[in-house]
Specification:
The complex is a heterodimer.
Chain A lengths: L3 H9 L6 E3 L4 H7 L17 H11 L5 E6 H6 L3 H8 L4 E7 L2 E2 L5 E2 L8 H8 L3 E5 L2 H13 L4 E6 L20 H12 L4
Parallel strand pairs in A: 1-2, 2-3, 3-7, 6-7
Antiparallel strand pairs in A: 4-5
Chain B lengths: L3 H4 L4 H10 L4 E4 L6 H8 L5 E4 L4 H12 L4 E6 H6 L1 H9 L6 E5 L12 H12 L4 E4 L6 H13 L3 E5 L8
Parallel strand pairs in B: 1-2, 1-3, 3-4, 4-6, 5-6
Classes of the chains: A alpha/beta, B alpha/beta.
Protein backbone atom coordinates (compact mmCIF):
# COMPACT_ATOMS: atom_id res chain seq x y z
CA UNK A 1 0.00 0.00 0.00
CA UNK A 2 1.27 3.48 -0.91
CA UNK A 3 1.05 6.96 0.54
CA UNK A 4 -0.77 9.14 -1.96
CA UNK A 5 1.75 11.98 -1.60
CA UNK A 6 4.72 9.67 -2.19
CA UNK A 7 3.05 8.12 -5.20
CA UNK A 8 2.35 11.57 -6.67
CA UNK A 9 5.97 12.57 -6.11
CA UNK A 10 7.08 9.48 -8.02
CA UNK A 11 4.71 10.39 -10.83
CA UNK A 12 5.87 14.01 -10.88
CA UNK A 13 9.36 13.00 -12.06
CA UNK A 14 7.75 11.70 -15.26
CA UNK A 15 4.98 14.26 -15.66
CA UNK A 16 6.65 16.14 -18.47
CA UNK A 17 4.21 18.70 -19.84
CA UNK A 18 1.08 16.67 -19.13
CA UNK A 19 -2.12 18.33 -17.98
CA UNK A 20 -3.03 16.84 -14.59
CA UNK A 21 -6.51 16.45 -13.12
CA UNK A 22 -5.50 15.47 -9.58
CA UNK A 23 -8.96 14.50 -8.35
CA UNK A 24 -8.86 13.13 -4.81
CA UNK A 25 -5.09 13.60 -4.77
CA UNK A 26 -5.47 17.34 -5.24
CA UNK A 27 -4.50 18.40 -1.72
CA UNK A 28 -1.09 16.76 -2.17
CA UNK A 29 -0.61 17.58 -5.82
CA UNK A 30 -0.90 21.35 -5.33
CA UNK A 31 2.16 21.09 -3.03
CA UNK A 32 4.12 18.95 -5.51
CA UNK A 33 3.35 20.38 -8.95
CA UNK A 34 5.62 22.93 -10.55
CA UNK A 35 3.21 23.64 -13.42
CA UNK A 36 0.05 24.90 -11.69
CA UNK A 37 -1.37 26.39 -14.86
CA UNK A 38 -1.41 22.91 -16.37
CA UNK A 39 -3.22 21.46 -13.33
CA UNK A 40 -6.95 21.23 -12.75
CA UNK A 41 -7.39 20.86 -8.98
CA UNK A 42 -11.16 21.04 -9.01
CA UNK A 43 -11.89 19.50 -5.62
CA UNK A 44 -15.17 17.69 -6.01
CA UNK A 45 -17.64 19.48 -8.31
CA UNK A 46 -19.97 16.44 -8.18
CA UNK A 47 -18.88 12.95 -7.23
CA UNK A 48 -18.36 10.44 -10.00
CA UNK A 49 -17.58 12.94 -12.73
CA UNK A 50 -13.80 13.24 -12.74
CA UNK A 51 -13.23 10.54 -15.36
CA UNK A 52 -15.79 11.91 -17.79
CA UNK A 53 -14.46 15.45 -17.29
CA UNK A 54 -10.89 14.34 -17.99
CA UNK A 55 -12.02 12.26 -20.95
CA UNK A 56 -13.79 15.32 -22.38
CA UNK A 57 -10.64 17.35 -21.95
CA UNK A 58 -8.60 14.63 -23.66
CA UNK A 59 -11.00 14.57 -26.61
CA UNK A 60 -10.91 18.36 -26.92
CA UNK A 61 -7.10 18.55 -26.69
CA UNK A 62 -5.83 15.45 -28.49
CA UNK A 63 -2.29 16.83 -28.75
CA UNK A 64 -1.96 17.16 -24.97
CA UNK A 65 -1.31 14.33 -22.55
CA UNK A 66 -4.10 14.22 -19.92
CA UNK A 67 -3.45 12.49 -16.59
CA UNK A 68 -6.27 11.85 -14.12
CA UNK A 69 -6.04 10.68 -10.50
CA UNK A 70 -9.50 9.23 -9.95
CA UNK A 71 -10.73 7.34 -6.88
CA UNK A 72 -12.42 4.00 -6.25
CA UNK A 73 -15.54 5.69 -4.87
CA UNK A 74 -15.80 7.91 -7.95
CA UNK A 75 -15.26 5.00 -10.33
CA UNK A 76 -17.87 2.87 -8.59
CA UNK A 77 -20.35 5.73 -8.79
CA UNK A 78 -19.86 6.08 -12.55
CA UNK A 79 -18.37 2.82 -13.74
CA UNK A 80 -20.17 3.11 -17.04
CA UNK A 81 -17.77 5.81 -18.18
CA UNK A 82 -15.10 3.15 -18.57
CA UNK A 83 -17.04 1.83 -21.57
CA UNK A 84 -17.31 5.31 -23.07
CA UNK A 85 -13.60 5.98 -22.61
CA UNK A 86 -12.75 2.62 -24.15
CA UNK A 87 -15.04 3.38 -27.09
CA UNK A 88 -13.52 6.82 -27.67
CA UNK A 89 -9.96 5.45 -27.29
CA UNK A 90 -8.28 8.75 -26.43
CA UNK A 91 -4.62 7.89 -26.96
CA UNK A 92 -3.61 10.86 -24.80
CA UNK A 93 -5.55 9.76 -21.69
CA UNK A 94 -3.94 8.20 -18.58
CA UNK A 95 -6.45 7.08 -15.95
CA UNK A 96 -4.86 6.46 -12.55
CA UNK A 97 -7.23 5.37 -9.77
CA UNK A 98 -6.47 5.79 -6.07
CA UNK A 99 -8.05 2.91 -4.14
CA UNK A 100 -8.29 3.49 -0.41
CA UNK A 101 -11.29 1.12 -0.11
CA UNK A 102 -13.34 3.73 1.71
CA UNK A 103 -15.11 7.06 1.52
CA UNK A 104 -12.34 8.94 3.31
CA UNK A 105 -13.90 12.39 3.19
CA UNK A 106 -17.06 11.23 4.94
CA UNK A 107 -15.37 9.36 7.76
CA UNK A 108 -13.94 6.21 6.23
CA UNK A 109 -17.03 4.11 5.62
CA UNK A 110 -16.33 1.19 3.24
CA UNK A 111 -16.85 1.40 -0.50
CA UNK A 112 -19.10 -1.52 -1.57
CA UNK A 113 -17.21 -4.78 -1.92
CA UNK A 114 -14.08 -2.70 -1.62
CA UNK A 115 -11.53 -5.45 -1.14
CA UNK A 116 -12.79 -7.83 -3.82
CA UNK A 117 -12.96 -5.75 -6.99
CA UNK A 118 -10.14 -6.09 -9.52
CA UNK A 119 -10.51 -2.63 -11.01
CA UNK A 120 -7.83 -3.13 -13.65
CA UNK A 121 -9.70 -6.21 -14.87
CA UNK A 122 -12.92 -4.18 -15.02
CA UNK A 123 -11.19 -1.52 -17.12
CA UNK A 124 -9.69 -4.12 -19.41
CA UNK A 125 -13.04 -5.89 -19.77
CA UNK A 126 -14.62 -2.57 -20.74
CA UNK A 127 -12.07 -2.21 -23.53
CA UNK A 128 -9.06 -0.34 -22.15
CA UNK A 129 -6.17 -1.76 -24.15
CA UNK A 130 -3.77 -1.51 -21.20
CA UNK A 131 -4.43 -1.77 -17.48
CA UNK A 132 -2.10 -2.25 -14.52
CA UNK A 133 -2.26 -2.71 -10.76
CA UNK A 134 0.21 -1.63 -8.07
CA UNK A 135 0.13 -1.89 -4.31
CA UNK A 136 3.73 -0.90 -3.61
CA UNK A 137 5.53 2.31 -4.41
CA UNK A 138 8.76 0.79 -5.67
CA UNK A 139 7.46 -1.09 -8.71
CA UNK A 140 5.12 1.80 -9.52
CA UNK A 141 8.05 4.24 -9.41
CA UNK A 142 9.98 1.97 -11.73
CA UNK A 143 7.14 1.58 -14.24
CA UNK A 144 5.32 4.90 -14.29
CA UNK A 145 7.60 6.50 -16.88
CA UNK A 146 7.10 3.59 -19.25
CA UNK A 147 3.34 3.64 -18.70
CA UNK A 148 3.22 7.32 -19.63
CA UNK A 149 5.15 6.58 -22.81
CA UNK A 150 2.51 4.08 -23.95
CA UNK A 151 -0.49 5.20 -25.97
CA UNK A 152 -3.68 5.63 -23.99
CA UNK A 153 -6.17 4.99 -22.78
CA UNK A 154 -4.37 3.34 -19.89
CA UNK A 155 -5.87 2.40 -16.52
CA UNK A 156 -3.67 2.10 -13.44
CA UNK A 157 -5.08 0.81 -10.16
CA UNK A 158 -3.13 2.10 -7.15
CA UNK A 159 -3.70 0.84 -3.61
CA UNK A 160 -3.23 3.79 -1.25
CA UNK A 161 -3.55 4.31 2.50
CA UNK A 162 -6.78 5.99 3.55
CA UNK A 163 -6.50 9.57 4.78
CA UNK A 164 -9.74 9.77 6.69
CA UNK A 165 -11.35 13.06 7.60
CA UNK A 166 -13.93 13.26 10.32
CA UNK A 167 -14.15 16.98 10.91
CA UNK A 168 -17.27 18.81 9.77
CA UNK A 169 -16.71 20.14 6.28
CA UNK A 170 -16.82 23.72 7.47
CA UNK A 171 -13.88 23.26 9.82
CA UNK A 172 -11.55 21.43 7.44
CA UNK A 173 -8.41 23.06 6.09
CA UNK A 174 -9.03 24.48 2.61
CA UNK A 175 -6.26 23.41 0.29
CA UNK A 176 -7.59 24.92 -2.92
CA UNK A 177 -6.15 28.35 -3.60
CA UNK A 178 -8.02 28.97 -6.88
CA UNK A 179 -11.70 28.64 -7.70
CA UNK A 180 -12.81 25.97 -10.16
CA UNK A 181 -13.56 28.68 -12.70
CA UNK A 182 -10.13 30.26 -12.24
CA UNK A 183 -8.43 26.90 -12.65
CA UNK A 184 -10.12 26.36 -16.02
CA UNK A 185 -9.41 29.93 -17.07
CA UNK A 186 -5.72 29.54 -16.22
CA UNK A 187 -5.51 26.33 -18.25
CA UNK A 188 -7.16 27.97 -21.24
CA UNK A 189 -4.70 30.84 -21.10
CA UNK A 190 -1.84 28.37 -20.84
CA UNK A 191 -3.11 26.56 -23.94
CA UNK A 192 -3.84 29.75 -25.88
CA UNK A 193 -7.58 29.12 -25.95
CA UNK A 194 -9.78 32.20 -26.35
CA UNK A 195 -11.77 32.92 -23.19
CA UNK B 1 -48.75 13.23 -50.11
CA UNK B 2 -47.24 15.11 -47.18
CA UNK B 3 -49.64 15.65 -44.33
CA UNK B 4 -49.97 18.85 -42.32
CA UNK B 5 -48.53 17.01 -39.36
CA UNK B 6 -45.38 16.13 -41.32
CA UNK B 7 -45.05 19.69 -42.54
CA UNK B 8 -45.16 20.85 -38.95
CA UNK B 9 -42.47 18.45 -37.78
CA UNK B 10 -39.01 19.34 -36.56
CA UNK B 11 -36.65 17.79 -39.05
CA UNK B 12 -33.30 16.34 -37.99
CA UNK B 13 -31.65 18.25 -40.84
CA UNK B 14 -32.84 21.49 -39.28
CA UNK B 15 -31.46 20.56 -35.88
CA UNK B 16 -28.12 19.53 -37.37
CA UNK B 17 -27.92 22.82 -39.25
CA UNK B 18 -28.46 24.67 -35.98
CA UNK B 19 -25.67 22.71 -34.33
CA UNK B 20 -23.24 23.54 -37.12
CA UNK B 21 -24.31 27.18 -37.22
CA UNK B 22 -23.41 27.43 -33.54
CA UNK B 23 -20.06 25.73 -33.81
CA UNK B 24 -20.82 22.50 -31.99
CA UNK B 25 -17.81 20.18 -32.08
CA UNK B 26 -18.86 17.37 -29.70
CA UNK B 27 -22.32 15.94 -29.03
CA UNK B 28 -22.48 14.18 -25.68
CA UNK B 29 -25.58 12.09 -25.75
CA UNK B 30 -27.67 9.17 -24.68
CA UNK B 31 -30.27 7.94 -27.14
CA UNK B 32 -33.94 8.69 -26.70
CA UNK B 33 -37.01 8.07 -28.75
CA UNK B 34 -36.95 11.56 -30.25
CA UNK B 35 -33.51 11.56 -31.80
CA UNK B 36 -32.90 8.40 -33.79
CA UNK B 37 -32.83 10.07 -37.21
CA UNK B 38 -30.72 12.86 -35.84
CA UNK B 39 -28.21 10.25 -34.67
CA UNK B 40 -27.89 8.83 -38.18
CA UNK B 41 -27.20 12.29 -39.58
CA UNK B 42 -24.72 13.21 -36.86
CA UNK B 43 -22.88 9.94 -37.28
CA UNK B 44 -22.22 10.74 -40.91
CA UNK B 45 -21.02 14.29 -40.26
CA UNK B 46 -17.23 14.43 -40.03
CA UNK B 47 -17.26 17.76 -38.19
CA UNK B 48 -18.98 16.25 -35.15
CA UNK B 49 -17.56 13.92 -32.53
CA UNK B 50 -20.27 11.82 -30.90
CA UNK B 51 -19.60 10.87 -27.30
CA UNK B 52 -22.11 8.30 -26.12
CA UNK B 53 -22.62 7.95 -22.38
CA UNK B 54 -24.64 5.38 -20.50
CA UNK B 55 -25.98 7.60 -17.74
CA UNK B 56 -27.02 11.16 -18.38
CA UNK B 57 -25.19 12.71 -15.44
CA UNK B 58 -21.93 11.77 -17.12
CA UNK B 59 -22.85 14.00 -20.05
CA UNK B 60 -22.52 17.11 -17.89
CA UNK B 61 -19.04 16.34 -16.59
CA UNK B 62 -17.90 15.25 -20.06
CA UNK B 63 -19.24 18.48 -21.56
CA UNK B 64 -17.47 20.46 -18.86
CA UNK B 65 -14.17 18.82 -19.81
CA UNK B 66 -14.75 19.46 -23.50
CA UNK B 67 -15.44 23.11 -22.74
CA UNK B 68 -12.30 23.34 -20.57
CA UNK B 69 -10.41 22.09 -23.61
CA UNK B 70 -11.72 24.94 -25.72
CA UNK B 71 -14.31 23.09 -27.79
CA UNK B 72 -18.10 23.45 -28.00
CA UNK B 73 -20.17 20.61 -26.57
CA UNK B 74 -23.90 19.98 -26.91
CA UNK B 75 -25.73 17.71 -24.50
CA UNK B 76 -28.48 15.63 -26.11
CA UNK B 77 -30.58 13.65 -23.63
CA UNK B 78 -34.16 12.91 -22.63
CA UNK B 79 -36.06 14.63 -19.82
CA UNK B 80 -35.98 11.43 -17.77
CA UNK B 81 -32.19 11.46 -17.80
CA UNK B 82 -32.07 15.18 -17.15
CA UNK B 83 -33.90 14.63 -13.89
CA UNK B 84 -31.43 11.90 -12.95
CA UNK B 85 -28.56 14.33 -13.55
CA UNK B 86 -29.29 17.03 -11.01
CA UNK B 87 -26.04 17.00 -9.07
CA UNK B 88 -23.87 16.81 -12.18
CA UNK B 89 -25.81 19.67 -13.76
CA UNK B 90 -25.22 21.69 -10.60
CA UNK B 91 -21.58 20.86 -9.96
CA UNK B 92 -20.06 20.39 -13.40
CA UNK B 93 -21.89 23.03 -15.41
CA UNK B 94 -23.75 25.65 -13.32
CA UNK B 95 -21.07 25.99 -10.64
CA UNK B 96 -18.26 25.91 -13.22
CA UNK B 97 -20.03 28.43 -15.48
CA UNK B 98 -20.09 26.19 -18.53
CA UNK B 99 -22.11 27.75 -21.37
CA UNK B 100 -23.68 24.61 -22.75
CA UNK B 101 -26.96 23.94 -24.52
CA UNK B 102 -28.97 20.93 -23.40
CA UNK B 103 -31.26 19.52 -26.07
CA UNK B 104 -33.79 17.58 -24.07
CA UNK B 105 -36.35 15.22 -25.52
CA UNK B 106 -39.61 16.17 -23.87
CA UNK B 107 -41.13 12.74 -23.28
CA UNK B 108 -44.81 12.89 -22.54
CA UNK B 109 -45.33 16.48 -23.69
CA UNK B 110 -48.77 17.49 -24.85
CA UNK B 111 -49.80 20.93 -25.94
CA UNK B 112 -53.01 20.80 -23.99
CA UNK B 113 -51.23 20.16 -20.71
CA UNK B 114 -53.15 17.04 -19.80
CA UNK B 115 -50.46 14.41 -19.83
CA UNK B 116 -50.27 10.82 -18.68
CA UNK B 117 -46.53 10.72 -18.17
CA UNK B 118 -44.91 12.00 -15.00
CA UNK B 119 -41.71 12.58 -16.99
CA UNK B 120 -43.52 15.50 -18.59
CA UNK B 121 -45.15 16.57 -15.34
CA UNK B 122 -41.84 17.29 -13.68
CA UNK B 123 -39.62 18.44 -16.55
CA UNK B 124 -40.24 22.16 -16.42
CA UNK B 125 -40.51 22.10 -12.63
CA UNK B 126 -37.05 20.52 -12.54
CA UNK B 127 -35.62 23.23 -14.79
CA UNK B 128 -37.21 25.92 -12.65
CA UNK B 129 -35.68 24.37 -9.52
CA UNK B 130 -32.20 24.70 -11.02
CA UNK B 131 -32.95 28.10 -12.51
CA UNK B 132 -32.26 26.82 -16.03
CA UNK B 133 -33.90 28.86 -18.75
CA UNK B 134 -35.45 26.89 -21.61
CA UNK B 135 -37.03 27.16 -25.03
CA UNK B 136 -39.67 24.89 -26.51
CA UNK B 137 -39.11 23.60 -30.04
CA UNK B 138 -41.84 21.67 -31.80
CA UNK B 139 -41.31 22.23 -35.52
CA UNK B 140 -38.88 23.64 -38.06
CA UNK B 141 -40.33 27.11 -37.67
CA UNK B 142 -39.13 27.09 -34.05
CA UNK B 143 -35.57 26.14 -34.89
CA UNK B 144 -34.10 29.62 -34.50
CA UNK B 145 -34.81 29.26 -30.78
CA UNK B 146 -31.89 26.82 -30.71
CA UNK B 147 -29.56 29.63 -31.77
CA UNK B 148 -31.15 31.86 -29.18
CA UNK B 149 -30.32 29.24 -26.57
CA UNK B 150 -26.67 29.12 -27.68
CA UNK B 151 -26.39 32.90 -27.57
CA UNK B 152 -27.93 33.01 -24.12
CA UNK B 153 -25.64 30.27 -22.81
CA UNK B 154 -22.58 32.16 -24.03
CA UNK B 155 -23.82 35.46 -22.63
CA UNK B 156 -24.83 34.12 -19.21
CA UNK B 157 -22.15 31.40 -18.90
CA UNK B 158 -24.84 28.98 -17.86
CA UNK B 159 -26.56 25.90 -19.26
CA UNK B 160 -29.67 26.69 -21.31
CA UNK B 161 -32.18 24.02 -22.31
CA UNK B 162 -34.04 23.39 -25.55
CA UNK B 163 -37.05 21.16 -24.98
CA UNK B 164 -37.70 19.07 -28.07
CA UNK B 165 -41.42 18.47 -27.97
CA UNK B 166 -41.55 16.38 -31.06
CA UNK B 167 -41.78 12.80 -29.97
CA UNK B 168 -44.90 11.71 -31.76
CA UNK B 169 -44.75 13.42 -35.13
CA UNK B 170 -41.16 14.39 -35.83
CA UNK B 171 -37.91 12.46 -36.07
CA UNK B 172 -39.64 9.13 -35.84
Amino acid sequence: MMDTAEMLKAFSHHRGNAIVVPGRGGRHWVEISDKPNRDLPLGDPAMGGHASFAMGLALAQPEEKIVLFDSDGDVQMAMGILATIAEQQPTNFYHFMLDNACYATTGGQPVPNALKIAYHDVARACGYPRAYAYDDLEPFSTDVGRILDEPGPVFVWLKVRPEIENKPIGSRAQWRTRSQIQVVTDLKQELGIAI
Amino acid sequence: MVSDVQNAALSPETVLAQMKKNGVTHVVWLPDSETNWLFLLMKDDPSLTLVGVNREGLAFSAASGIYAGGKTPLILIQNTGLMESGDSLRGWTIQMEVPVVLMVGYRGYTRHGVNKDTAATYTERFLHAFNINYYLVEEDGDAERISIAFAEARKTKRPVAVLVADEYHGFN
